[in-house]
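Example 3.2
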Amino acid sequence: MTTKDAHDDFLNKLSRVYEKREAVNITDWVLENVTGLKRLERIINKNVVLDDDKILQLKEYLKELLTHRPVQYVLNEAWFYKMKFYVDEHVLIPRPETEELVEWITNEVRNTIYGLRNKELQILDIGTGSGCIPISIKGKLRNVQITSIDISSKALQVANRNAEALHAEINFIQIDFLDEKSWDTLHRYDVIVSNPPYIPENEKGKLEKNVTAFEPAIALFVPDDNPLIFYEKIVKFAQSHLNANGQVYVEIHEDYSKEVEKTFAENDFQTEIKRDIYGKARMIRASKLWVLLSYNQE
């Protein structure tokens, strides 16, 4: 079987259960992973004969994909902020909107008083999952010390693996953040960031099967009767663990932006809602009523 034969067969079978464009993207991703050849290289070398091991691997991947298992879990890789992360079912698949959250944080740190400080900036990442947020921030900012927490020991194993592979020094700690007694083990921080669970249980039916059947529910869903539970805890934590002129950045459910904003505002935080590239309200920055000094680093 040649690379062209393999591509055409894989795409044909995948197109039976996936929308055409998605099937094309997945096929190219899998073929590159298995053959080591990028799309253009496969077009140029379309008659390269695949060995039996590669053909068997393609068959195994196809079998998994036809069950709607996400390609990121099938290949154990996901791209985030131009870096390749290891992922499995113990962590959420990193999303593009979270890249925007990282970009917002890194840009604002550079253009505030924090960009002028000589001492290390202390950052806390709540619910780290794959570690994509702290690792990406660490790669963009110098002189920062990041602590990342998660309730899942399996998730922290994934995050540690990514930190080692991507040469990022992060302090990972297993903590149930909803248990306020655990906060005693944490310090004070200049920046608190979180992409917490925020989807009410009753919205499961609106999500795609590849999300509900494979991604970790503990990282996705919150009780219907208290969908803001993590934001309420973050606000309370920040009251005692956020340094003067500190900032909180959180990813949010687009339908609950006003409610999250109100939760911060009622506790004397100034807030700004930021929309993603699709115009959806997906992020909030909150800070205490302290004056931040601006600095334009150009």
